[in-house]
Amino acid sequence: MFTVHRKEIEWGGRKLVLETGKIARQANGAVLVTYGDTTVLCTAVAAKAPKPGVDFFPLTVNYQEKAFAAGKIPGGFFKREGRPTEKETLVSRLIDRPIRPLFADGFRNETQVVCTVLSHDLENDPDIVAMVGASAALTISGIPFLGPIGAARVGYKNGQYILNPTMDEVEDSDLDLVVAGTVEGVLMVESEAKELTEEVMLGAVMFGHTNFQPVINMIIDLAEEAAKDPWDLPEPAYDRKALKARLRETVGSDVEAAYTETVKQSRYEKVGAAKAKALETLAEEFDAQSIGFEFKELEADILRGAVLKTGRRIDGRDTKTVRPIVSEVGILPRAHGSALFTRGETQALVVTTLGTSQDEQIIDALEGEYREHFMLHYNFPPYSVGEAGRMGSPGRREIGHGKLAWRAIHPLLPKKEDFPYTLRVVSEVTESNGSSSMATVCGTSLSLMDAGAPLARPVAGIAMGLIKEDHGFAVLSDILGDEDHLGDMDFKVAGTEVGVTALQMDIKITSITEEIMKIALGQAKDGRLHILGEMAKALTGAREGVNENAPRITVINIPKEKIRDVIGSGGKVIREIVEQTGAKIDIDDDGTVKVSAVDQKKSDAAIEWIKGIVAEPEMNVVYTGKVVKVVDFGAFVNFLGSRDGLVHISELAQQRVGKVSDVVSQGDSVKVKVIGFDDRGKVKLSMKQVDQATGEDLTKKAE
Fold it and tell me: pLDDT digits over 583-614, tens only?
């Protein structure tokens, strides 16, 4: 019934298996990939014909994690998988980025790649497995895909690179880098690093590229046995050479003039006018879709040719100069930390909020539930590019850019024990003309330091571009939006004066060489150091103490056996403390107590209450207490928080007492001295001996 094709190799110390022909046979391509005990089903399907009027390639990649893969039942009311998690969105982008440039020119058929995690061994991250599977599924599908690609994860510890480190090894590594590419070169890099040098980062990229070559060969071997017949690509419905010539003749000078305009909106207006002129003039000879496609090609030719020929860019800069920078902090009076970072026509308003551990984000992942105390949310409203558009939930791009900035900042954050705050940073991109994600990195660094978060060092980011033709190439520092759109590379580098903390690269051509990456990293370092110098004009380090509008968190430690006393039955005691003082209280299992409040008096009151609960009464020490019950033989007094003791009638006063109520009443505040403990540990108190006591050594107020 099944014609199964199977390939396997040893890779990074584990077995990698590709299998096709048994599952999902109606898809154009379907491959079951197993690495260790992690298994992902990857499918590729494309429509037989493009939709009329489509002038772009409609590719969708969906990576999905099924809870059953880790033996779990989904949380929530509905008990089934719902909207994509952040990780699912990020891995979908991770797969999309290296495969998108490899589809044949002119292919416009709707295409969908679906990668489903079926088994997770909690050691091997499914993302690399899914990337390999997506490449294999496309390669055998017959869809015009110019692959295959390979992918690998690279770690770095004790001066050694690690191929496909396990999830535990990644936690202990100085580097978490994912690289993908072809036989010829690298197409995509995504990473987080602990201030590593440019040389180490480049070495990691090339280490990964070398070590995923066996995977590419394995996919080729599978395709030789199992690939379907390649699809025929339809010939263009028009004479491309003739249309190119007519466009150059009709609007070439107009487009050249537009790309000498340094102001983005003015440039766009002139480009739009040139396009409208071309559509009107050539309407009788060519259809609008063909004109629009070739017009983009004309724009690219003019921009790229000018850079390679003159070394000058759209806004007049040379290839290495960074746009003018203005850094400002403390611009929002009630925010805990705020910064406005402007670089040319790109601007980010970044705001930091400090919270307690109760504000941590709970992540329900396949690997298990955990809490995240640093969140970075990136928003890209349509007004930032002068447009009116939909406002709603963040899209894949916003989630991806936010995570990139998160990775850039994360290695420099203080340890939670040293700075026990939950950090939420929101970046509102208020203007955009290239590399708003790197503006977010710079703004986040400033905003956190403005809030008093002690970063080890400031972090800055810069985006590099590439123009590559047969006769040469140029690497561009701090690219504009048009240079990103019409260029060949988007290479983002973030880090400190010490080293790199995040590296992200996307290539729009088939691959780039080690030489180009080395030049880009060197140029990026110079640019990053320049940006850090400009940022230092606003703030050189974290402010002393947190903002006055932020909560003050005080950490105290109590004996573990006293935790139950502070919490109380059903949480009664801790709720009372919170309600009475207005402070927030978090108690860890090890006895660490975090008390937070914007008003220090509220925090002090809660701390005093807690210390009273956990304190042990000391012999011959005088405490202040409250009479909670009057009986015939004496009075019960509450002191040291919830602790009670008995003042016997004989210990109420110097003279003989006939009736307890003659001396004290319920609710009275009294001073009592500890005079002993009975066989059951109950405290014996005296009011009479307080009157006799003299000297500071016998007097102590309840804490």
Answer: 999 898 888 899 998 888 888 888 888 887 88
Q: Is 697 annotated as ligand-binding?
A: no
pTM across the whole model: 0.85
Q: Do domains 3-224 and 323-535 have the same CATH topology?
A: yes
Architecture of domain 550-612: 2-Layer Sandwich (3.30)
Label residues 372-409 b or e (16+ Cβ within 10 Å = b).
ebbbbbbbbeeebbeeeeeeeebeeebbbbbbbbbbbb
Cα–Cα distances in angstroms (integers) from residue 540 to residues 160, 418, 602, in the given order: 34, 20, 33
172 among annotated binding-site residues = no
- For 247, 259, 260, 304, 610, the CA distances from 312, given in Å and listed in that order, are 24, 11, 10, 10, 67
Tokens, residue 329:
């902090």
Q: Give the integer Cα–Cα distance in Å for 694 and 433.
A: 77
- In 3-state terms, what secondary structure has residue 174? coil
Strands 374-379 and 368-372: unpaired
Helix H or strand E segment including 476: strand 472-477
d(CA 256, CA 416): 54
Among 341, 417, 348, 409, which residue's Cα sits nearest to residue 375? 409
Q: How is domain 323-535 classified at the CATH fold level? A: Ribosomal Protein S5; domain 2 (3.30.230)
Domain 3-224 has CATH 3.30.230.70: yes
Q: Is 248 helix (H, G, I), strand (E, B) or coil?
A: helix
